Amino acid sequence: MRPFSYDRAAGAPGDAGTTWLAGGTTLLDLMKLDVMRPERLADINGLGLAEVRLDAQGLHLGALARMAEVAGNAEVQRHFPVVAQSLALAASQQLRNMASLGGNVLQRTRCPYFRDPSHAACNKRNPGSGCGAMDGANRLQAVLGTSDACIAAYPGDFAQALVALDAEVTLRGAAGERRMRFADLHVQPGTTPERETTLRPGELITGFTVPAGPWAARSLYLKVRDRESYAFALASAAVALDLDGKVVREARIALGGVATVPWRAAEAEADLRGKVLDEASATRAAEAAFAAARTHGENAFKPELGRRTLVRALLLAKRMEA
Ligand code: SF4
Q1: Is the CB of 111 under 6 A from ligand 1?
Q2: Residues spanned by the domain of 292
Q3: Does ligand 1 come within 6 angstroms of the Cβ of 260?
Q4: Is residue 307's pLDDT more than 90?
Q5: Pocket test for ligand 1, best of 33, 35, 36, 122 (most atoms within 8 A of CB)
Q6: What spacing in Å lies between the alpha carbon of 196 and ligand 1's midpoint?
Q7: Cα–Cα separations (whole angstroms), residue 88 to 85, 219, 226, 263, 273
Q8: Atom of ligand 1 lying closest to residue 189 CA
Q9: Does any domain span residue 253?
């Protein structure tokens, strides 16, 4: 690992050369791999920012709340099950005990070419160098939101719950505090895959607000992976339903494991609105969700797996008590 300086942060903003340290569960791995090379770490664990609170407006989560704490909160499990489940199904218990919510949404891709500097070609790590995964080992890579420069899948789970439920994220930086839709935090790779978020230099995520809605209680996160624990999603679906009997008033859907960013499946939602929810309508919605999928050899199975995951998630959510 390269030398770096360590400080306890008194508060945002930092400057462009400062990297925030919370749980460290992603950052330290990438420093050891020589993928991330921060000169200064500012430890933010003394800043508070750990609230977990529900009120009439919704769910308020501090960026430094730990994944395990939120996943195990009985009120979150009851009123926002998709949030609790997306956190409980991620990583291992030890990692969930350490990892912060803010760090979790900013975790970097698991693309093997990105994580191993001995591979020369990776546009995300080394802009302009090419993409080793495009014609290489790409079984885990994305099929939605890709570009000719990068096909790396976004690896997280919690972010899908936030996107599906129209959460907001609060940020603090040199210009003060601002809030924006969580869906606007991550950006698709396009021609600049090294740019992953709309965070400004030195800006810090301080929290998330998940609005209350008639769909929040009938929500779930379904994750399909190579093994049943401690693995990243091959495909996942965060779904939330507001039903009038068997008819869909409103569906909220986000997909994971298949896209370059936490992926809102707006076409599938529109397809379901006003329809009786059954296997046929869920299948049509899933087909709409993956209509624009683009595969690259080894990941050709993902659209079908993604469709089946979404159909199953919708039918399971329909059976829930809300
Ligand atoms: Fe790098 Fe993206 Fe290509 Fe992976 S898919 S090698 S992260 S450019």
Answers
A1: yes
A2: 219-318
A3: no
A4: yes
A5: 122
A6: 12
A7: 5, 14, 17, 20, 29
A8: 2
A9: yes
Q: What's the CA gap between 259 and 242, in Å, rounded?
A: 25
pLDDT value of residue 14: 67
β pairing state of 52-55 and 18-21? unpaired
Counted domains in the chain = 2
CA distance 21 to 314: 37
Residue at 163 is within a domain:
no
Q: Classify residue 119: in a domain, yes or no.
A: no
In a domain, 58, yes or no: no
Confidence category of residue 15, pLDDT binned at 50, 70, 90: confident
